[in-house]
Amino acid sequence: MRRLLLERSLAMTYIRSILQKTSKRLIAICLGVTCAMICGFLISRMYREEMHQALRVSAGPSSTKRFEIASYFCEQASKTGLTLNLEPTPGSVECIELLKSGELDVAFVNSCISVSGDDDVQVLGVVGIEPFHVLVRGDFSGQERLGEWLKGKRIGVGEKGSTEWLFAHEALDYERLKLPTASAPGDVTPVEFKKKDLISFVSSITAAKDSEKASLIDNLPECMLVQGSLPSIIVQLLVEAANYKIVPIAATEAFLNDTFRSKHYNSAKIERQFLEATTIPMLTYLGHADGDWRLPELDCKTLGARLIVVARRDVPSHTVELLMETLFEGEFQSRTRSISPRDIPSPFDIHDGAVAYLDRDKPVVVNEMMEGVNKALSILGAMSAGGLSIYGLFWKSRSRKPTDYFAELRKLELLYHSQSADGGDQEMREGILRSIEHRLITLRHELIDDICEGRITNEQSISTIITILQDYRNSSPQRTASNQHATLIPEPRKLAA
Asked: Rounded to an integer, what distance in angstroms lies between the CA atom of residue 276 and that of residue 60?
């Protein structure tokens, strides 16, 4: 039983030594594969960040000055590598709804519009102001109150989903003018119109014969509310073709001060605190040939809303930075004089990509970057320390101590003495003795490896182990010369191993 246990222990020791040698290659292969996977992931991520998907953009209805501005913006953005597909929509409210649903990525909207659940809409910049034009035709006298004059008349309020529609309802409510219902006619008759259809109708007036023009003009409302960047294309057509006049909004300050009276229409409303008092400069538009040649004759006081560029929150920051570059650099900036979103208040938060662009030259950014670098270095240092600790434990578990050699030599000695004292089968005894001698040679090779790789450095221990090995080999039984040559002289070691 004792001999069986010693033989089993000897076999396990031999197997363990083989596994220790082969584990080095496995570890190297695993580390190499892991590094390759990490490098591949980082390279693919860098490549993916350089790719920019086509963005869907809208700026309200076509054939407007706002749409022209957005079209020029898309053209300039293409020079930075972006692809922007411009699509027409009814107006700002519809744009924000499409942004919420993910059908749009970027939009040009008014800053005074608020829609329920628009938290994912964020601002990039401001590109101008769009005044509200109040146009009247007929026997309006500047001495009259506009609200009193409108009673019993038709007023063009734009299309649902547009800023004009919301502002018209807000202004009529402020003037205490009732809209018609199923049971009552109301004080005014709102007329909804699409800008595209209005432009087509006005063009037909211009092309009509003189005898037909008057009847066509009578089909237009007595008052029109039109919002647009100066000079507005639609306003110019109305003034020139139908002899409309531009009148001021007298109660601008009073309207702006009453910021708690805004109403929701469906899910949208006008935020009065983001409206501004502004003016339409005198002589902005060419008038009708039979009337005043240039309008307005004096600066016209009115209200306006800022035109801002917004994007969805999930638009990548590196794409937003290119949009910001288009807004604030080059030809687009020289034509529109874009303003930072920090300088003009709006109901939307600023996009992270816009913040990164605006702060690119500030020292605080350097401090934040250095703080990030320090955090990254701290994390890297902690990971490195942990890795070194794990590697040290692994190395320690793999390293062989002098006591390991002494313990194995002790087992070999016990096995040798048990064979010497046993009077069993001679052939079996010789086989076991040859195995012991082969193991002694293997131990010598392992000792040399441990010394070369620095796992054993104690010179006294090394000398003791070598002496014991030599004593054991010298005390081995004498066999034939050929047998001794076959067992005592090891095969040449392969350098590759």
From this structure: 21
Contact 100, 117 (CB under 8 A): yes
Residue closest to 246 by CA, chosen among 213, 292, 277, 312 = 292
- Rounded to 5 degrees, what angle do the CA atoms 140, 143, 145 make? 75
Overall size of the chain counted in residues: 497
Residue in this structure with the two tokens 């809209």, named with its chain if needed: 179
- Give Cβ neighbours of residue 292 (< 8 Å, ≥ 6 apart): 245
d(CA 239, CA 348): 35
Phi, psi of 461 (to 5 degrees): -65, -40
What is the spatial distance between Cα 175 and Cα 54, in angstroms, rounded to a whole number? 45
Question: How far apart (Å, rounded) are the C-alpha atoms in residues 280 and 135?
Answer: 12
Q: Which residues in the chain come in under a pLDDT of 70?
A: 1-52, 142-143, 289-292, 361-375, 378, 380, 382-401, 405-406, 412-413, 415-425, 453-455, 457-458, 460-461, 469-497
pTM of the predicted model over 0.90: no
| Cα(246)–Cα(226) distance, integer angstroms | 11
- pLDDT tens profile 173-202: 888 999 898 888 889 999 999 998 999 999
Measured between alpha carbons, how far is residue 354 from residues 100, 155, 172, 326, 359 in Å? 19, 40, 38, 12, 9
Cβ atoms of residues 268 and 121 within 8 Å: no
Q: Which residues fall within 8 angstroms of residue 478, CB to CB, at 6 or more apart?
A: 484
Domains of the chain: 2-37+399-488 (no CATH), 55-360 (3.40.190.10)
Taking the CA atoms of 227, 231, 237 and 242 in sequence, report the sign of the dihedral they define. Answer: positive
Backbone angles phi, psi at 69, to 5 degrees: -60, -45
**Residue 372: partners with Cβ closer than 8 Å, 6 or more residues away:** none
Q: Residue 99 and residue 107: Cα distance in Å, rounded?
A: 8
The residue whose two tokens read 């087992």 is 411
Tokens of 147: 């609200």
Concatenated DSSP letters for 307-376?
EEEEEETTS-HHHHHHHHHHHHSHHHHHHH--B-TTTS--SSEEPHHHHHHHTTT-HHHHHHHHHHHHHH
Query: How distant is the alpha carbon of residue 143 from its chain centre?
Result: 56
Structure tokens of 104?
């749009």
In a 3-state reduction of DSSP, which class is residue 279? strand
